[in-house]
What we know:
Layout: H1 2-13, H2 18-32, H3 46-61, H4 66-81
Helix pairs in contact: 1-2, 1-3, 1-4, 2-3, 2-4
Amino acid sequence: MQAIKSVRKLIQADPASSRSAVLAALVLALESEEPFNLTRLYGLPYEDFELALKLVQEWRLDRYYSAKYRLLDASLLAGRHTEPAIG
């Protein structure tokens, strides 16, 4: 569950950044099973894009892993600190 942990740390380190906003939105969409526009990932640096793909893979493999909930909390907090990303 390395990607889950990495995304959580990234979001917590800079919750107001545009990359945190995109990754947090992805996490929230995965958790709520709501649609997510994948083209938003294209605006991420390639390293973060790959991390997002690994996150989706891990999420699918283990939907109930406890680290996911810490990531979800960080994503919810980041959503309170940022304006909605365009796109």
